[in-house]
Every structure is written in C-alpha cells, then in structure tokens.
Design goal:
The complex is a heterodimer of chains A (335) and B (289). Chain A is mainly alpha-helical and 335 residues long. Chain A is built from 13 helices and 2 strands. Chain A starts with 39 loop residues before the first helix and ends with a helix. Chain B has 289 residues and is mostly helical. Chain B has 2 domains: 11-71, no CATH class; 79-247, MetI-like (MetI-like fold, Orthogonal Bundle), CATH 1.10.3720.10. Chain B contains 15 helices and no strands. Chain B is globular. Chain B starts with 10 loop residues before the first helix and ends with a helix. Classes of the chains: A mainly alpha (335), B mainly alpha (289). Chains A and B meet through helix 2, helix 4, helix 5, helix 6 and helix 7 of A and helix 1, helix 2, helix 5, helix 6 and helix 7 of B.
Chain lengths: 335, 289
C-alpha cells in the first residue's frame, strides 16, 4: 500500500513477440510493419473479450444506453406512468423561456466561480509552500486532504449549523465584535458564498496534492540554473514553475469545471430540499443549482422529459465552458 | 543571519529565503486548522446540549452530553440499520469493482485485439461525461425491473467504474513487465493464469488505492441513493443523515452526534491508509493529465 504506482518510461527493454499463439502474446508498441490483427483475430481473442465483458455489459446497460435514452427522453413528454408522447423541440423551447432554468444556470455559474478560483489559487499556493518545507510534509498532506473524503451530507449539515442566521458560530463571533447577525442563509449572495466556501473547503486539499506532485516532478537543476541567472523566487515561480505546471493546471481546471458545475448535494442538504419542502434551493431559490432544478423537475414533479432536456442543455454548457477554459490555458502558453 | 552569498546579485532573494521555512509552516498550520476545525467543532456540538449551542455566545468547549445525544439519535433513526446497508453496498461494490476493473484493465494494457482502441476510447469519453446524464434513465430502468428501493439498485451502476479501468490500465502498462508475462506464457500459462498469478500480485498497491477510492465513494454517495431508495425506512447512512437533518433542525446536538458517528468510521479508515491513498490519488491525477 506504500509504494506509489510506477510512472515514467517503462524499464522494460524493447523485446517483444516471441513464440506461442497470438492470443497469449502480450501487446506492446508493435514494431514498424506489423500487420494489424485480422478478422480471424476476433475469435482467437475470445479470452480478452470475455475479460472486458463484465464491465462492458454493465457499462452499456447503466451508462451508455441511459445517456442516449435521456437524449431521447428530452424530445418526449413523459411522467413515468403514462405513455411517452413525442413533442419535438418543445421541451427545449420551454427551457429557453423558463426563467427558473436561467436562474439556476446563473446560480450554478456564480457558485462555480466563487469556489473554483479560490480553490485552485489556494491549492497552488499551499502546494508551493508544502514543496518548500522539509518537515511534517506527510502530516500536512493528510491533514489538508481529509476534507475531500468527508461526506458532502455531513459537511453541508455542519456548514448549515455554523452559518445559521440565528445561532451559528460565525454570527456569534461577529456578535462579540459588535457586528449584527449576518443573514448567511437567506441573502441570495451570501447563500452562494456559503455553498462556495463549503466546496472550497472540500476541494483545496485535493488540488493541492495534484499540484504538489507536479512540483516534485520538476528537476531541481532547472531552479539552480535560474538561480545562477539571478532570478528571484517570484520570477522563478511565474516564469518556470507555472509554465512547466501548465498541463497539470489545465487538468485541474477541467476537472474543477466538470465537478464544480455539478453542485447538487450541497444546496440540497443545506436547504433540506425534498418533496415535502417545495422551497427547493433555499430562500428566493438562490441556492437552486441546475442539477437541483433537474432533480426537482424529474423526481419531485415527475416531469421526465423536461428533466432530460435540462440535463442535456446543462451538459452542452459544461462542454462549452471546458472548451473555453482549455483555450484560455492554452493561449496563456503562447503569451 | 548574515550568510554572505556574493554570487547572487539579487538581494531580495536572500531576504525572502531566510524566514521562508518558518513562514511556510505558519501558513500551512493555518490551513491545517481550517481543514480540521469542522471536525473539532462537530465534536464540540455533539458533546453539548442544544441549549449550549443556541446560547449567545455558544459554548466553545467539549461538553459531557455525548452519550446522551448519541442515545437520543439512535432512538430517532435506525442508525445501525442504515450503516449496515451502507457497509454491505460499499463492500460488495468495492470487491466487484476491483475484480471487474482489474480484469478488463489487464486485457487492455497487455493485449491487442480488434476493437481495443474504440472500446477503450468510448470508456474514456464516458469517464468525462457528467453522471447525471444517465441518472433519469437509470431510475426508469430500475423501476422497470422492480428494483426501486432495493440495495442492489445501488451497487449495479457503480460497477461500471471507468476511472478504475483507466487508472489500473496505466499502472499495469508500466508496472507489469512483459518479460514476466512472456516467461509465464512459455511455461504454458494462459490469459487468465497470467492475470491471476502474475498481474494481480504485482498491482496490489494500485488495487488497494482503488479499493479505498471505491469504498469511500460508495460510502459517501448521496445523489443516487436519494433517488432510488424511495422507502424512507430502508436507506443508506448518508440519506438517513440528511433525513435526520430535515426532520430535527431544532435539535442540533443530536443531529451533530449523528454527523459525528457517520463521519468517524471513514476518517479512521482514511487515517490508516492515508499515505498510500494520497500517493495513489496523485499518480492517477498526474497520469490523467
């Protein structure tokens, strides 16, 4: 459990092939001129197909087919009980004119920006600090990573208690210095701020660990050379560390885009959104994220067609943002 | 304090470097305090009475009402029943994910077969898709086969863990030498013997990472159990905890006792395996980039 997976180039010499039937022959980068496996190869590889079949059967049944089926549902009217009725683009038309949908998109984007920017920035700063110290490294890594393995439900209940308008710890502390109670869980902006703080708390350590691995992979000789040339620590950081780390930063930005836009449990637990409590997303629906709106439409209102339309429109949005972020990080390289 | 270093012309460097060790530790300790504080404060709330929490200013020290709060919580919800459900689901999911994913990853990493690239590529694409795209049809599917409300409905979708295959694939490719497989093949070992006798023992570190990863994910999973476990008396720990929160917002010390009891097992598991787990998480992420 202690040794990390082997990375870097394989230490295996380039000896391939050998005698024996093809089906047992381990694969490696084939030498130039190798013939591609023939049709006959399909049958002779039945063991490999058998090996991957458990995964692919479940994958097709519970991932591949459902994703396509939800696209199909987005063009239907269906409440889960009656018959499906093809309605063309009506769900999307309704979506386009639905103010609550756009509110949920706005909420999601605000929460995402408020959480991702401090998370990634804080993670980079902490990773740099952690990389510079010699002692207690293991302790810091574990202590800062722990939030990420804690359940969102527990964390959301905790944040709800600490930021409670009436008896929360934060307002009590503010009260001792004479600040009147702040309506953390009823002001539309503060609601988003609390959710973003929660996500920042959970994800900073995770991203820090990734950055730290990237920092450790940078050869020290580069820094020695920079030092020889008279570069200070700040310049070294921006002109050497950041450019080398760019692929890893890109990775974290994309992961944070995909994960950060999918906030659901945080507001759902924080504001106890269930069938009995139709006030989904808190006061003024300020914490209604798009996935929470999807949950409300599909599972609380049983409007399957509309739920599918929401989730697909949302997916398109995520992809657009991923591409934009990708471009931004890539363009930074050229300048 | 006067380590003369004439080779370096930039004077600012030395001034910044000298206290860096200490400054870094101060900042890191502040971060650790922020990171650990919720756990400490949860304990404070769970050991005091609700009146103490509601008081202004609230009680800031550990109290003596922990057992009372826990007893109260156990009388309110079926804590151990839902915990047992969670353990069963997380355990079964973990074992099956390890087997299914390692077998497929071995085939992908070490053998060429027609369609390999397309199949693996599909898997990578779906690894990036938001799971929510599939949730609604998954629910419809579960109600078609009559599994809504049942624990087996929880485990099944989690078994298609694309990340696990991707991750083990990277590990096997570099961590299992072809020579060993060649040698085994010459000795007459077929595909499944190569997998079982050679690859599996060599990828134990990767498997233990994936085991913790899958277990933690299954333990903490909330969205899918919330949707598919429609019977409120037969749920997992996370859903039970959320129900406790909804139904008893006025009794915070009891709710916090539940939070504490639900979070504790996982924190302990994590603390035991943390070193290897973080190393594994890092490798997976860096290789993924």
């Amino acid at each position: 459990m202690s040794s990390p997976p082997v990375t870097g180039p394989a230490t295996v010499p380039e000896h391939r092939g050998g005698p024996g039937p093809a089906r047992f022959r381990p694969r490696r980068t084939p030498p130039a001129g190798t013939v591609r496996p023939s049709r006959r190869g399909v049958l002779s590889h039945w063991r490999q197909y058998l090996a991957i079949s458990p995964f692919y059967l479940i994958f097709i049944g519970f991932s591949f087919f459902p994703v396509l089926y939800s696209l199909y549902l987005a063009f239907q009217r269906y409440d889960g009980l009656g018959t499906k009725q093809f309605v063309g683009l009506q769900q999307f038309e309704f979506l386009w004119n639905d103010p609550v949908f756009w509110l949920s998109i706005r909420n999601t984007l605000v929460i995402w920006v408020l959480s991702t920017v401090p998370t990634l920035f804080g993670a980079l700063v902490l990773a740099t600090l952690l990389h510079s110290v010699r002692r207690f490294k293991g302790f810091y890594r574990i202590a800062l990573y722990v939030p990420n393995v804690t359940s969102i439900v527990a964390v959301a209940i905790f944040f709800g208690a600490v930021f409670s308008n009436n008896f929360g710890l934060v307002n009590a502390i503010l009260g001792t210095v004479g600040i009147s109670p702040v309506p953390w869980l009823s002001n539309p902006w503060l609601i988003k701020l609390v959710i973003a703080l929660l996500m920042t708390w959970m994800w900073t350590g995770y991203n820090m660990i990734i950055y730290l691995a990237g920092l450790q992979a940078i050869p020290t000789s580069i820094y020695e050379a920079a030092k020889m040339d008279g570069a200070g620590p700040v310049r070294t950081f921006f002109q050497i560390t950041i450019p080398i780390m760019r692929p890893i930063i890109l990775f974290t930005v994309i992961i944070s885009t995909i994960n950060g836009l999918q906030s659901f449990s945080e507001p759902q637990v924080l504001f106890a959104s269930n069938a009995a409590n139709q006030n989904v997303g808190g006061p003024g629906q300020a914490g209604l994220t798009t996935l929470l709106y999807f949950y409300q439409s599909a599972f609380l209102n049983n409007d399957y067609g509309y739920g599918a339309a929401i989730v697909w429109a949302f997916f398109v949005l995520i992809m657009v943002l991923v591409v934009i972020n990708w471009r931004l990080v890539q363009r930074g390289r050229k300048s | 304090m006067t380590t003369a270093d004439t080779t370096r012309p930039v004077t600012g460097t030395r001034r910044l470097r000298r206290p860096r060790g200490l400054t870094a530790h101060v900042f890191l300790m502040v971060a650790v305090l922020i990171s650990v504080f919720p756990f400490v404060w949860t304990i404070v709330m769970a050991t005091n009475t609700t009146e103490d929490i509601y008081k202004s200013p609230p009680k800031l020290t550990f109290g003596s009402h922990l057992l009372e709060n826990i007893r109260h919580m156990l009388n309110t919800i079926d804590f151990f029943g839902s915990m047992l459900n969670t353990i069963v689901v997380a355990g079964v999911t973990t074992v099956l994910v390890l087997f299914i994913d390692s077998l497929a990853a071995f085939a992908f990493a070490k053998f060429d077969f027609p369609g390999r690239k397309v199949l693996f590529g599909t898997l990578l694409v779906f690894m990036m898709l938001p799971l929510q795209l599939a949730v609604l049809p998954q629910f419809i599917l579960m109600s078609e086969i009559g599994w809504v409300g049942m624990l087996k409905a929880l485990a099944l979708p989690a078994l298609a863990n694309a990340f696990g295959i991707f991750w083990l694939h990277q590990y096997i490719q570099n961590g299992v030498p072809d020579e060993l497989l060649d040698a085994a093949r010459i000795d007459g070992a077929g595909f499944f013997r190569q997998y079982w006798n050679i690859a599996l023992p060599m990828i134990k570190p990767a498997l233990s990472f994936l085991a913790i990863y899958a277990f933690v994910n299954a333990w903490n999973d909330y969205v899918w159990p919330l949707i598919v476990l429609t019977d409120p008396s037969h749920v997992t720990l996370q859903v039970e905890l959320a129900q406790l929160h909804v139904g008893h917002t006025t009794d915070y010390s009891m709710v916090m006792a539940g939070v504490l009891m639900a979070a504790l097992p996982l924190v302990v598991v994590f603390a035991i395996f943390a070193r290897g787990f973080i190393a594994g998480a890092t490798e997976g992420a860096v290789q993924g980039s």
